[in-house]
Amino acid sequence: MTGPVLAHSVLVDGLRESALVDGPLESLVCVPVLLPLLAAGVKLAIGGRLRQLQSVISLVTLGISLAVSVVLMIAADAHGPLVTELGGWPSPIGICLVADRLSTLVLVVSSAVTFCVMVYSVVNAYDEQEHDAPMAVFHPAFLVMVAGVADAFLSGDLFNLFVAFELLLSGSYVLLTFGGTESRIRAGATYTLMALASSMLFLIALAITYGATGTLSMAQLAERFATLPEQVKVLVELTLLLAFAIKAAIFPMSAWLPDSYPTAPAPATAVFAGLLTKVGVYSIIRLEALLFPGGPVSTLLMWVALATMLAGVLGAVAQTDMKRMLSFTLVSHIGYMVFGVALSTVAGLAGAVFYVVHHITVQTSLFLVTGMVERRTGTTSVTRLGGLMKASPLIAVLFFIPAMNLSGIPPMSGFLGKLMLVQAGLAVGGWLPVTLVAAGLVTSLLTLYAVAKTWGKAFWRAPRPDRVGRVVESEEHTGEDPTVTTTTLPVALPLSVAALVALGLSFTVLAGPLAALARRAAVELMAREPYITAVLGRQP
């Protein structure tokens, strides 16, 4: 651990002594948003004629975005928020992008995850699996979605945040319906309806906010909300929370997720599970910490967190399909993050930030491994699987490690994140926070049961003799229970997933520096002044 900490200190000291922080570094804030959009336009112009070039452009673009994100994170940690004003219009008149500790931390992790997923997509060779799928659209849609995610993390303006949501929605819808199968179109319709409902609520909240304050700049709203009547503040807060809760799949607005995500291609499902719900959670963190600190809605958020944990994990226990089981665990573990936000303390926010970072990598890894299982066997139903530990021990290990991490087995990052939240809840005290702590422990145990049951049936038990063979037709078309085939996978495919699993494990090795960074981000969020000064204290 000493080596990475020393390297980080050297980089921070170098940036502190550099005059570049107030110039070129701030101009880099827009790169994670603009570069993927530019690359998507180039790829659309290329079309499907040069598929290898499509892959190269995607990987180079995401690699550059990752490098820039790391630089921004180090600079923001050393100097405070970095601000870029779009179009040359000063804040709060114009729209700005703000890179602070929270936004750059999640941006780095999301950039690393999307890079690994793109490697998986390239190796997986969709052009060989789905001949009728418009591959010339897959890569641009992926980059548009990545740009929307980055824009959401960096946005310093509520309207620009709305634009970011619509940007990632347009890209994610294309990915969700990729291939044009009946199940994907049906899932895409459900996903779009929920997204549109969320967007309408968001627009209503923006209209109320602008009418009451005359601005949509988050920094300026942080000052002006203090002068508004309590009823207006609560109305705006609840409307925004409801819009973000739908996007984050918080109970009871989570029923759409298990029916939508499992139908998409494995790379798309992995990114959806790892990132898109976290954009909603991130928005809630930013909303509660910057605009409504210590508001009266905290108690409601605790009840919502409790319901989300239990409803999601009980749904996971009941599933017999790997994708649906993971979709329900995704819902349940969103409850941990909401719990940390609801505590309205530095320790609670730090735990929530740490858990967001952990969960992005773990959930993405699990869905990618499930995609490999489906490609190898033709199914993700645990009632039809078996013997994969012997047939493919590497896939079994790649599923087992993040599954145990998700369950919170010591000393993995999942355990450390839960421990931070438990300690924060007990420090606050009171029967409701303590009840949430107990619910979190129960959820962790039931998660362990769900993933252990899945791993045991799919990987450990011997395959049934009547299930070994080739899948002739799917159950959806014949009504029968077909047998399972096994096919070989490209060698580089599990290696790309192994890199993502290793990233998740690195959060255990680097838990000390990561927890310290999460705490500094929480302190900055609760203080609010560094963010407000960075945005509004600049000279036009």
TrEMBL record:
Primary localization class, coarse: membrane
GO cellular component, one term: plasma membrane
GO molecular function: NADH dehydrogenase (ubiquinone) activity
Sorted UniProt keywords: Cell membrane, Membrane, Transmembrane, Transmembrane helix
Any one of the GO BP annotations: ATP synthesis coupled electron transport
Transmembrane residue ranges: 25-44, 56-76, 102-123, 135-153, 159-179, 191-212, 232-252, 264-285, 297-318, 330-357, 394-416, 428-452, 491-518
Domain called NADH:quinone oxidoreductase/Mrp antiporter transmembrane: residue spans: 155-446
Domain of life: Bacteria
Topology in the lipid bilayer: Multi-pass membrane protein
Localization terms from the record: Cell membrane; Membrane
PANTHER family, A to Z: NA(+)_H(+) ANTIPORTER SUBUNIT D1, NADH DEHYDROGENASE
Record family assignment: Belongs to the CPA3 antiporters (TC 2.A.63) subunit D family.
NCBIfam families recorded: PRK12665.1 (NF009308)
Descriptive protein name: Multicomponent Na+:H+ antiporter subunit D
Species whose genome carries this gene: Nonomuraea thailandensis
